[in-house]
Amino acid sequence: MGFFKESYEDGYQFNKSNFNTSTVAVLVIACNRPSISRCLNKLLKYRKSKEQFPIIVSQDCIHERTSQVIKSFGSEITHIHQPDQKEIKVPSKEKKFNGYFKIARHYKWALNQVFNTYNYGTAVIVEDDLDVAPDFFEYFKATLPILQKDRTLWCVSAWNDNGKFALIDRNDPKLLYRTDFFPGLGWMLTRELWIELHKKWPNSYWDDWMRHPDQRKGRSCIRPELSRSKTFGKIGVSNGLFYDKHLKFIYLNEVPVDFTKFNLTYLLKNEYDNNFVGHVYKAPQVNYNELKTKAIKHNDPVRITYYTKNNLKSLTKLFGLMDDFKSGVPRTAYKGIISFTYENRRVYLAPSNDWKGYDPTWQ
Ligand SMILES: *[C@@H]1O[C@H](CO)[C@@H](O)[C@H](O)[C@H]1NC(C)=O
Ligand SMILES: *[C@@H]1O[C@H](CO)[C@@H](O)[C@H](O)[C@H]1NC(C)=O
Ligand SMILES: *[C@@H]1O[C@H](CO)[C@@H](O)[C@H](O)[C@H]1NC(C)=O
Q1: For residue range 70-103, what is the model confidence (pLDDT) as tens digits?
Q2: Where, residue-wise, is CATH 3.10.180.20 in the chain?
Q3: 87 lines ligand 1 (CB under 6 A)
Q4: 253-278 tens-digit pLDDT
Q5: How many angstroms separate the CA atoms of 360 and 138, rounded?
Q6: Which residue of 17, 18, 20 sits with most ligand 1 atoms within 8 Å of its CB, as the best mutation to test the pocket?
Q7: pTM
Q8: Whose C-alpha lies nearest to ligand 2, atom 4?
Q9: Which of 126, 125, 122 is closest to 145 using CA atoms?
Q10: In which residue ranges of the chain is CATH 3.90.550.10 found?
Q11: Cα(130)–Cα(77) distance, rounded to whole angstroms?
Q12: 324 catalytic, yes or no?
């Protein structure tokens, strides 16, 4: 796979600019799906301020029907077109992944538009097949100061990869986490990060590229317990099987949380590493059978320790968690810890105390 190959050095210059640090552009990535109306309708329904959350729809592809749908939203949004429609030279063994090359090219152009031509300081990226939750905007508004303050964070995502009904605590919709796994699917980044990434943006597979240590550089994202985004699209570049088996079961939060009223400083690295990680390792250690046979006589959180990759793989399968790794990081993990619920109890899969960091050979 060619995704580590850096794209052309294009000498692109960044405008020096003054931007309003509390304005967040919502960049909607579009191409040829007229069903984007569903995504835009929800965004407009829940957006309270057009000034604070300007929506830019960036369209790749020449697709008249989709263009018409986007245009029908009039001045509520800004509609821009990716101008370079040349076929991309794709290595022959990657021909069937052509779409991923187009997506990477589109992202690069669109993000340059948002941060340079339009001079926004922050953006939330949404793909055209995403439904958002009623508190989507509140969530990003409240987490933005944390993202701006904490250099060990590089994104805020609306998505919980393990956000299925049985794996979450729906009584705690305000619960947020740090994660070392870049989730994507409705995510916020700052102009500063884009200035860092745009120079080496890859030709394809941009999300796995982001997850590589060369890009991530040990940084984390914020993610919710209950997803604030959910994909409704089956038809796309990535295959429909994954949608049927997994994505369609993700629970989209319905009860709005007024996040801006809560103190979210617990997500700052120092506080979080003391409190959350401390809490996990204080939880009593149990094994899967004890849980399954209901042998535990309390309702408090518990911890299951894993030691090896196969250990973890089989545990994730038993619990119905995502079982893949990217650059050695399991989905949703923070310092190797995966948090979820099992029969209404909080469970942490956690590496042993002497954990040395992620092992990129775990895949
Ligand atoms: C920045 O944006 C916010 C939200 O739209 C607005 O309330 C504020 O007045 C703006 N600040 C400046 C200096 O324009
Ligand atoms: C720089 O910003 C100005 C004004 O916002 C814009 O017109 C221009 O296109 C920008 N330059 C680039 C290279 O995007
Ligand atoms: C937020 O919580 C932290 C402790 O986690 C505390 O130190 C800080 O004073 C709180 N801030 C506000 C505005 O209450």
Answers
A1: 999 999 999 999 999 999 988 888 888 899 999 9
A2: 281-351
A3: no
A4: 999 999 999 999 999 999 999 999 99
A5: 35
A6: 20
A7: 0.93
A8: 117
A9: 122
A10: 16-233
A11: 17
A12: no
93 compared with 240, residue with greater pLDDT? 93
Closest ligand to Cα 119: 2
CATH superfamily, domain at 16-233:
Spore Coat Polysaccharide Biosynthesis Protein SpsA; Chain A (3.90.550.10)
Q: How does pLDDT run across 271-326, given as a tens digit for each residue?
A: 999 999 999 999 999 999 999 999 999 999 999 999 999 999 999 999 999 999 99
Return the beta strands (E) in the chain as ranges: 25-30, 55-59, 77-81, 122-127, 130-132, 153-157, 176-179, 187-190, 220-224, 229-231, 302-306, 325-326, 329-330, 338-342, 345-351
Q: Is the CB of 261 under 6 A from ligand 3?
A: no
CATH assignment of 281-351, among 3.40.462.10, 3.10.180.20, 3.40.50.2000, 3.40.50.20: 3.10.180.20
Which ligand 1 atom sits closest to the C-alpha of 52?
Answer: 5
The DSSP line for 16-62 is P----TT--EEEEEESS-TTHHHHHHHHHHH---TTTS-EEEEE-S-
pLDDT score for 5: 39
